Amino acid sequence: MQSTIWDPVETISGEEMEQLQVKRLRYCVGRVKERVPFYQERLSGFEPASIQSLTDLARLPFTNKQDLRDNYPFGLFAAPMANVVRIHASSGTTGKPTVVGYTANDIDIWAGLAARALALAGVTRDDIVQNAYGYGLFTGGLGMHYGVEKLGAAVVPTSSGNTARQVMLLQDFGTTVLCATPSYALVLAEAAVEAGYDLSTGPLRLGIFGAEPWSEEMRTEIESRLGITALDIYGLSEVMGPAVAMECTHKFGMHIAEDHFIPEIIDTETLEPLPLDQQGELVFTCVTKGALPLIRFRTHDLARLLPGDCACGRTTVRMEKVLGRNDDMLIIRGVNVFPSQIEAVLLAMGQVEPHYQLVVERGNDHMDDLEIRVESTSDPSQHMQLRRRLGTNLRNALGIGCDVTILAPGEIVRSEGKAVRVIDNRQI
Ligand code: DLL
To answer: Where is the domain boundary, 302, 327, 352?
Structure first.
């Protein structure tokens, strides 16, 4: 599948890109210093004109999610409310959400970047795009919606949920592209089977899946169940929403819209920038946003920036699939475990369904116990053996033992948005 370059900036040389980024960074730092009291304080004594290259980023302070919370709801906005036309918020699991605002120009840039991402994935004006990301305060629904319209394809704004109706529309409208979380794509696949609709023979050809971590093994599973190409899309509300980065059809990392979001990878302990190709925490500086330009925003997402050119012809830097967030990482008996690692082991076995949950308890002996619940369609007489094999594979991969519980298909609660993978019952 050939994809069109949406914006010539996607193919400029590394030097040209750096020049553009430095120019935008200098302007942005000057602007927040002038307009946002929080940055006025953080940047006191810093001279924006002293920014000469991207290495100067390291001289700038970080911004954390907590800084947004401390300035709840609008304290970090750099534009007056009269110029703000949209407000989104990310649902924190505890306390207040983080609130993000957009000017009309921000919305225009976002629509353009979502269109760029869709074009990058090979979506064209001829496509019918069913957008099953949630519409509302979550950025997924509206973010992709305006991108599809900007590109000129037809958007079907189903939002998430109402699964039986989604399947009916997939079938009746001849939807060719599906936007959803990868876990919801699987729910739709199951519902299609129930409704007797064979997705793999229908016109659906492409999925744009993101908003939660998903392994390569999960990609294989989704591609075979839906009979499509499944591509990864990354983003976060604080930085913009979906389309901060998008995978091309070569499936070798996601191209970052680095002309708008300058990426860095830092060591989570020392907070020092790491070279390309090393894994660490992603940090973004949003250099073109009018309402909420954040300097060195710490995402807590763990990934690598990939060196080298991409076969698609784009020169924009790529990030690898996000393994997980460092705050999602479980520490079980001293060993670091990411849900996505467990997902990869489970699905590589081939006998289990792509629906699983991890339950962590602290036993009376003060030791942590990890239980892995996973569904299987195999005959219950085989479960004992399956449990044993999964236990061994997980021990080999993770370095810790865990209990495996095999459940019947459908026993794990399905999610319409981001899947809940971990139930941590430890009271620490
Ligand atoms: O999830 C934005 C989005 C919507 C991205 C639709 C892609 C598609 P938040 O709700 O603020 O925004 O959550 C952001 O989700 O920091 C990551 O931890 C995680 N995340 C997003 N995309 C991916 C991905 C949206 N492709 C948080 N792979 C981020 C892994 C992802 N994790």
So the answer is: 327
